[in-house]
Amino acid sequence: MADLDQTALLVRIAEALERRCPPPAPTLGLGEARAYVFDARSRALRPVARVSRIDFELLCGIDHVAAILLDNTRRFARGLAANNALLWGARGMGKSSLVKAVHGLVEAEGLPLILVEIHREDIEHLPQLLLALAAVDERFLLFCDDLSFDAGESSYKSLKAVLEGGLEGRPSNVLFYATSNRRHLMPRQMIENERSTAIHPGESVEEKVSLSDRFGLWLGFHACNQETYLAMVERYASHFELEVAPAALKHQALEWATTRGSRSGRVAWQFIQDLAGRLGRRLDG
After folding, report:
1. Within a 10 A sphere around the Cβ of 279, how many other Cβ atoms?
2. Angle of helix 246-260 relative to helix 265-278, nearest 10 degrees?
3. Which residue of 60, 115, 179, 237 sits 20 to 30 Å from the alpha carbon of 254, by its own alpha carbon?
4. Which of these, 253, 244, 284, lies nearest to 271 by C-alpha position?
5. Could you report the per-residue pLDDT of 62-74, keeping only the tens digit for each?
6. The CATH number, out of the four listed (3.30.2310.20, 3.20.20.60, 3.40.50.300, 3.30.450.40), of the domain defined by the range 35-221
C-alpha cells in the first residue's frame, strides 16, 4: 500500500514539474508546400501536397460573407491590418470550404499566404505554435475547423489571451480563422448552467462568451431555402458538365434532399458526387 502511495506521489511531482517547464517550441520544417497541418504529437508542421477544396467561384448562397472574408484575407496577405474571423452557423453551409477557397484564390492571385490547420483538441498548444510562426518571415493563415468548448474545459482561456488581450497578443504575421456551429463557441446548456449556479452569474457568463468577442469578424451562415439549394446543384452540374435535363436534375436533387432531411451546400455536393458516379463521370479538380 505504501508503494502505491509513493508511486502516486512521484507521478504528481513529475506532472507538476512538467507544468512548470515550458514545452519546446514546435519544429516548423517549412518547405515548398503552401499548406500544413500542425501535428501536436510531433510538435511539427506536416505539409499538405494538395488541399481538399472547392473553387471560390463554385460557392453559392454565401456571396455576402464570402466577399467580406476574401477582402479581409487579401488585406492581410498584402501586409495590411485585418481581423481574426469566426465563421459560425448552420452545418454544411460552406464555412470551412470558404476558408480553404479564399486561401486558394489569394495564393492564385500571387499574394503569398501559408495555410496552417490546427485541430480543435490541440488548441492548448496554440501559444507555442504562434511563438514559432512569429519568428518566420512569412504570412500565415491559421485555421481551426469546428471550434467549440464543452463544460469543464479551460483551454479557451489560453485562446483568449493569444487572440487579443495578452501581453504579446497575436503576431502581426498570423491571422486566425475558426469555424463553429455555435455563435459563442460554448453550448447553450453550459451558459445557462453558469447563470443558474454561479454566485455572480452575469460575470461568469461574460467570462465565457467573451471569447467570441476576440474575433473582429463574425460571419453568420444560415440554412438555405429550396431556391438556393437548387442553384448550388445547378452550378456544380454546369461546372462539371454533367449532362442531365434541367427538369430531371431538379427532381433528383429535391428527392435527394428529402431523403437526407435537409438542404445545404454539403447535401448539394453529395448529390453531385452521386449523380456523377451514376453517369460514369469523375470529378477531378
Report:
1. 12
2. 120
3. 179
4. 253
5. 999 999 999 999 9
6. 3.40.50.300
